[in-house]
Amino acid sequence: MHVQPVFKKISSGAEVDLIAYVKDYLVEHPDTEIMIGCDSQNYSESTIYAIVVAMYKKGKGAHLLYRRWKTVREPSRSSRLLTEVWNAIETAEWIREHGLPRPTWIDIDLNPDQRYKSNEVFRQAVGMVEGMGYRVRYKTMDPMITYAADHLIKL
Predict the structure, then answer these.
(1) Which pLDDT does position 109 carry in this prediction?
(2) Is the separation of the CB atoms in 82 and 121 below 8 Å?
(3) Which spans in the chain are helix H?
(4) Pairing of strands 7-9, 15-16
(5) What is the CATH number of domain 7-153?
(6) Could you give the strand order of the β-sheet that contains 15-16, starting from the edge strand earlier in sequence?
(7) What digits encode the pLDDT tens for the residues 85-95?
(8) What is the spatial distance between Cα 41 and Cα 12, in angstroms, rounded to a whole number?
(9) Labelling 8: which of 64, 67, 69, 110 has CA 20 to 30 A away?
(10) Could you report the per-residue pLDDT of 6-55, keeping only the tens digit for each?
C-alpha cells in the first residue's frame, strides 16, 4: 500500500488521515486497542469491499473509521474472500509501519463450519492473518468489527 487510502468516520462520514487520526486518538485515549474487520459482497457487476478500523476501549465501546470501495465484480467467491482478508492485513501493516501499535485482532467474516460457503477458504485466510503475526477472530468467536463492515457494504 503506497498511497494511503481515504478513511472516514463512521459517525459523520468526514474524511480523515488514518495514521494521524489514530495517533491523536491514542494520545487522548490511552489503553485503547486497535482492531480491524473486513467484509465484501458482490452486487450486480460490482464487488463492494469494506475495511473498518476500530479503536476499542473495554467497557466503553469502539470509535470506528472505515474505508469502502467498489471494484469490478470478482467472479470467484474464493478470490473475493481472500482479497478482503488481504486488504485487512494490508491495513494492519500500514498502521504498524507508521509506528502505531499492532492491531489486537483482525476480524474476518468467514465460518469454520464446513456447512457454510465461506469455509472453502477459511483455513487459508486464518493462515494468512496468523502468518503475518496477527491474531484472528472469525464467526463463532464474535468478530464484532466485521458486523460494522457488513453494515457498510449494504449501504
Answers:
(1) 85
(2) yes
(3) 18-28, 77-97, 122-131, 144-153
(4) antiparallel
(5) 3.30.420
(6) 15-16, 7-9, 61-72, 46-57, 33-43, 105-107, 136-137
(7) 999 999 999 99
(8) 23
(9) 110
(10) 999 988 989 999 999 999 999 999 899 999 998 999 999 999 999 999 99
